[in-house]
């Protein structure tokens, strides 16, 4: 989780080249922890930023298939990425994003119906 938090922070701050991270490290996060969707989200965000839409779409789809991300920021990025690259598949991620509390580091979903 600490590595994913670091990768989220690095990607949020700009291109990974400026942070010293290598793309292979992001790929490792995405692939070595198949139970965590967050690594795929981070990789997808990086690839999207580089204009590599096909691989980015696949990373976001893989993340969606893994379930709800652990980190709130990853929930938002997953929804944004799918809305941009695969709108037909975006509905679950959009719902999660609307239910998530962005003030929390870790994903907390509100199951209450908004009034």
Describe the 3D structure:
- α1 packs parallel to α4.
- The protein is globular and about 40 Å long.
- It has 7 helices and no strands.
- It starts with a helix and ends in a 16-residue tail after the last helix.
- The protein is mainly alpha-helical and 115 residues long.
- The relative contact order is 0.14.
Series of H and E elements: HHHHHHH
Silhouette: globular
Amino-to-carboxy terminus distance:
34 Å
Strand tally: 0
Mean pLDDT: 94
Please identify the oligomeric state.
single chain
Biggest sheet layout = none
How does the helix and strand content classify structurally? mainly alpha
Strand content: under 5%
Low-confidence stretches: none
- Radius of gyration, rounded? 13 Å
The number of helical elements comes to: 7
Percent of residues in helices comes to 55-70%
């Amino acid at each position: 989780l600490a590595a994913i938090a670091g990768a989220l922070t690095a990607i949020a701050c700009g291109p990974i080249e400026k942070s010293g991270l290598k793309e292979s490290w992001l790929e490792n996060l995405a692939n070595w922890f198949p139970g965590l969707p967050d690594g795929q989200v981070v990789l997808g965000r990086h690839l999207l930023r580089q204009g590599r839409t096909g691989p980015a779409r696949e990373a976001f789809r893989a993340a969606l298939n893994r379930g709800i991300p652990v980190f709130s920021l990853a929930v938002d990025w997953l929804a944004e990425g799918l809305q941009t690259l695969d709108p037909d598949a975006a509905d679950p991620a959009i719902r999660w994003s609307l239910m998530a509390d962005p003030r929390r580091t870790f994903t907390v979903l509100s199951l209450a119906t908004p009034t």
